[in-house]
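hey can u run this one w/ nicotinamide-adenine-dinucleotide bound, need the structure tokens asap thx
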Amino acid sequence: MKILVTGGTGYIGSHTCCELLNSGFDVVIVDNLSNSKREVVNKIRIITKKNVTFYKCDVCDKYKLRKIFDREDIQAVIHFAGYKAVGESVKEPLMYYHNNLLSTISLLEVMKEFGCKKIVFSSSATVYGNPQKLPIKEDFPLHTTNPYGSTKLIIEGILKDLYNSDNDWSIAILRYFNPIGAHKSGLIGEDPNGIPNNLMPYIVKVANKQLDVLNVFGSDYKTRDGTGVRDYIHVVDLAKGHIKAIEKVIKDKGIDTYNLGTGRGYSVLELINTFVKVNKIDVPYKIVERRPGDIDMCYASTEKAKKILNWSAKLNIEDMCRDSYNFVVNSKKNKKSGGKHESL
Ligand code: NAD
Ligand code: UFG
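ok here u go:
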């Protein structure tokens, strides 16, 4: 069975492609490489020892998308493609609305034309805003505080309207908590350009001496140690959740939403201390002002995904810290040796 993966060379997409190929699916990737590199395609092939088809294509481009659907016998789609930086979305809202909404609408229109009505969509825990209660359940009130989050909420609404208009669709909306970690091969992972926005990529760059010191945003939150608490989930566990979701949409019609998290929260200081212990490396940090818009605590109720998708996260915070660092150490080795380490 052939699955189209939009954004398949990106961080979560590339790990999901590996899991799809290992589970026996054929994979077609569509990505415009706006936030990823073509070499990831080869790394997916090396990791899985399987072939994968890649099209450099903007998902907003319906003409090209049609050609791909015409050529490939696509049975279902996992839609990762989109911009994801909260801060950037505040500065460039139109760019976010344009890319995230137009790509999704174009994709859904072409899927409809070709009678392909099965889709798994990447949403985010950001749609819960500042939750009133914890753990966060899928039926909690939704509220967004930035244009990026609003694009996710609007797309969730579009998907619901689409299903209401035509019950032939099968749709899974996945709300990710905080994905970190990397594939254990060290070949694929998250490597943002410039100064990272998110905690783990920042920790890794400080450990790797690319940045001097980590700023811990606030120590007066209502948490165990005063620093923000989040539900970090290993990207490989997250990728495995997509296999369960795609199997579900292939089997059953309908629309449903699932949290993908571990159900456990860790504070910023707990994450730093675990990273230091596991990797035996120093991470200098200093406490600074709160970052505007941050919330105290966020962690998922995982019951629904467990019950309906038969999925739960298996890897722990030590695995996440080890694999995040291993990816960067391995990438550095690869760069020095001109990429010779790419074969497993
Ligand atoms: P990523 O940036 O690594 O991957 C997204 C990929 O989509 C990139 O390869 C990029 O080149 C591609 N892309 C963007 N716009 C495109 C377009 N118009 N046409 C074709 N390709 C396009 O991001 P990620 O972390 O892998 O996230 C994947 C999805 O999950 C995104 O939709 C993101 O919003 C969502 N998400 C991510 C997180 C997170 O913390 N990483 C959390 C919640 C939700
Ligand atoms: N933090 C620091 N220093 C940093 C970066 C982050 O102390 O340099 C703290 C934050 O204050 C927060 C925690 O680390 O307490 C996690 O911050 P991240 O930026 O890594 O993650 P967020 O929870 O803020 O947001 C991320 C994505 C959102 C997504 C959300 C839920 O950026 O897009 O997870 O999936 F919606």
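The domain at 2-337 is CATH 3.40.50.720 (Rossmann fold). anyway lmk if its weird
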